[in-house]
Amino acid sequence: MARRVKSPPQPISDLDARKATILEAVVVEHIDTAQPVGSSSVAATSDLAVSPATVRTEMVALEREGYLAQPHTSAGRVPTDKGYRYFVDHLEAGVLGPAQQRQIREFFAHVRGEVEDVLEQTSLLLSRLTNYTSVVVGSGSGHASILSVQLVNLDARHHLLVTVFSDGSVTKHSVLASYEATPVEVREASRQLNALLIGTTFETKVQVPSRADTVAKLVREAVSVLRAEQPTFEGEQVYIGGSSRVAEVFEGVETVRKVLSILEQELLVVTLVEDILDKGVSVAIGSEHGYEPLSSCAVIVAPVSLDGENVGAVGLLGPTRMKYREVMAAAEAVSKHLTAHFGGDERG
Amino acid sequence: MARRVKSPPQPISDLDARKATILEAVVVEHIDTAQPVGSSSVAATSDLAVSPATVRTEMVALEREGYLAQPHTSAGRVPTDKGYRYFVDHLEAGVLGPAQQRQIREFFAHVRGEVEDVLEQTSLLLSRLTNYTSVVVGSGSGHASILSVQLVNLDARHHLLVTVFSDGSVTKHSVLASYEATPVEVREASRQLNALLIGTTFETKVQVPSRADTVAKLVREAVSVLRAEQPTFEGEQVYIGGSSRVAEVFEGVETVRKVLSILEQELLVVTLVEDILDKGVSVAIGSEHGYEPLSSCAVIVAPVSLDGENVGAVGLLGPTRMKYREVMAAAEAVSKHLTAHFGGDERG
DNA sequence: GTTAGCACTCGGTAAAATCGAGTGCTAACA
DNA sequence: TGTTAGCACTCGATTTTACCGAGTGCTAAC
Fold first, then answer.
1. How far is CA A179 from each of CA A133, A159, B245, rounded to the nearest angstrom?
2. With a threshold of 0.90, does the pTM exceed it?
3. Which end of chain B, C or N, has fewer beta carbons within 10 A?
């Protein structure tokens, strides 16, 4: 599968077949039951024909190598982040249940409207599909050019600068002037702004008129307002679906609080998702993403592209013991559909 | 104070002074400690010079009348919704701490940008100020008229309809045509749309051209796309601040989940807030608002107006045992500042 | 290398004991 | 008549104890 591309920081030494089987059994059962897994149940579950004692010996080794951990002496084993990582890296592609496949197809067959709406709906879909909290990020194409600029006057001093970009995004800015302007002057300023800005990007240098008349002042004002946004403007949008899942999926109020408070910070979420994508990985487990408050989370990310360029991502956030196979399959399916949706019939 | 205007469904019979004092003492202490309150601590706290035994007799009466409840036989008393209601209705206006006042002034002195941004920032301010989850609703003026319409073509078949309304809001709609149109035709359609729609509202009937040429088709398409939104378009925006507070303020995962899942439904939140405003009340306690999942919540709402018309509201959501006085003061202060902010210097 | 056997650990649960805050009632009191 | 001290009683919360058993590590035999 194309998902796991780069190896994690310290390449994980391959385990021999039996250790791998045991590790997998532990992970699978722990994901299912949320309980520490003992040697005997592994011996029973896995199709290795070995006794619990043998399994135990192997488990000691797996623990020494950092794949498993023991909550306390007389308990079973629990996977560590490294254990999950191994599991995920060696996961064969999951396949979606027919019901879910239908749900996705159905959704994309009927969804309509602006990109923003579609992304928001998609985040709800993902959350419904997986029972985890979903994150959908629209990155904006970054260097879109201006298709149209328009200055609309609300009253003599308040104007609205509406800008349309080639990627279909629209921004508005208030322009508050200290002098009055007539509708005619505003219209003229609008005309000049169009002439000046159409086809430019944020990088383009623009020669503003230096005259002192009202129209020129308006133009200068508008350009500067628009430019002022440049540093922060990335056109990113974040849609979070099913944040209430956080409360049902994590135990411990404190964890819930921490995770929620991360999700509140949209900028942070975008960064997180993009970091994971940047690394070419699609799953970040536990502390791999470096956000301490999310150390008990796993994040699964799949890119959405348009004309070969990354324009966004869908993500899912759950506990480290999340259902990787199903969720990865869902993320992949939805991202594919989304890519097709934007690449194909529509553009917003 | 102007806050509590209408009496609740069944008018609350006034309590005699001593009962009122006792009820208040119970409410105050319970809000503080989250524990059932016993007769002796009431006797000690309140400045009534009576023994616990007397307090107890009164408490029995208060319980019979529905103001207090007993979690179990040998515990202290806890206020019921009705008890909180009485408390709130007889609350003298709280006054904000100087630090908070400064924080608010500071905020409004420096906040800039579009209405949307201001509202979002405000919701964060409110949440920081009160340590509860905040809700800021911008209602949109409802019957704004169109100031400008513009059709921008992305490519031969995809166009973007950008509409500016008199209240400063901007909408965009994709117009996807089954035929190709030249830039010239698009520009002409844009011109005609302007002529056709400027000054109209959603209520206005519009005479669309019935010709069969590309321009006329585009115009018809655009008008119908715009009209299609009418039923849902209310221009409402919701900004929720500090949703992670939910996890620290309510006990019980299930409650947290329920509350969060309500907060996810923006439409529902708007309705809730507007319902509370409609009733002329500014606090809804427990089941007063009729949303079962929020039955352990209190919601405090204060309106934001522009030119005497309600254009939004700020709200705070906490447990029924929330710090009413402080929070009501904060809500009121912020709503006043917000009203002044929009009424005065800026318009977005 | 594998496994049966076994002593050992230790968290979880249940039962028992205890504590004490708070109650309702009653009888005495002003 | 309203207030209060006194008192028996209730009942959740906390602590204590005992115990169970899942699971371990080790060892000796296979």
1. 50, 12, 45
2. yes
3. N
